[in-house]
Design a protein that fits this description.
The complex is a heterodimer of chains A (about 90) and B (about 200).
Chain A lengths: L4 H21 L5 H21 L10 H28 L1
Helix pairs in contact in A: 1-2, 1-3
Chain B lengths: L2 H13 L6 H10 L4 H15 L2 H4 L5 H28 L5 H4 L17 H16 L1 H20 L5 H20 L1 H17 L6
Helix pairs in contact in B: 3-5, 3-7, 5-7, 5-9, 5-10, 7-8, 7-9, 8-9
Classes of the chains: A mainly alpha (about 90), B mainly alpha (about 200).
Chain lengths: ~90, ~200
Amino acid sequence: MVLDAYILEYFLFTFFGSFGVLQIALAKNSKAKVFFGAVVLIVSYYWFFTSRDRNVHSVVEGSQLFLIFAIEAVSAVIITRIFNLLAKRK
Amino acid sequence: MNIIYLDENLFLWINGFVGKAPFFDSVIKLIVNEYFVPVSLSLILLYLWFVRPADFAPGKSKEKNQEALLTAAFSIGLVALLIGISNQFIARSRPFEQLPTHLLFYRPTDPSFPSNAAAVGFALATAIFIANRRLGVPAIILATFYAFSRVYAGVHFPLDVIAGALLGVLTTMAISKLVGLIKFSINLARSIQKKLQLELS
């Protein structure tokens, strides 16, 4: 099955955006975490909106976009959880 | 002079500014697509789910923040359904199909009224506003600019986005009142999160 490039790019954009937001949300008093999260968030936006024209008809409809967002949000939570566990082990 | 005449003339006046300020046109092109504003507002909801209220809004409960995400999800589903039903009865043509239009977007093929984009934007922003006013005000401003961009870019009439915005706001307010359903979903989501050991703080 060939994954459409638009869907993959959207998935990556929202995954890294979510990952960045999670770092900021869970930063507590860590300015380094906030900075890291902000950088990941900004870079994901910059990459997605400069890599190609986004004002074109997408193969994915609105409700499907939200479903993809939900899937990648859960993925970002899982990855963040793994990172936190690895950080605690150190 | 009826409301449709006023609506069309207001559209022509707003859309007539395209090309006069290239930087503003570039900003509109960034905002008007289906990605920038919906994703940004969804990320705010994700933030509200996980942030500790003590870090952000002392005295507020995490439960209210988490309700916002599920309220938004249910609202968007209901909005999509209502617009789908509306499209069976009202099939208004897009501005570029009937008027000379400066288009900054691709040509959507679904009916113009009501604006799905405005409805979704305001549904998300209203959910954020109900949970947290500090984030809710900029969210509402972003949703308003998103709705405006759809008119400026030539894909909707002003009445389309006003109707869409009202639909989004009213649907979210109605959904937020269904507290029992939301709380059941939150408890279910929390128990799944706990069982999968996905707590991050």
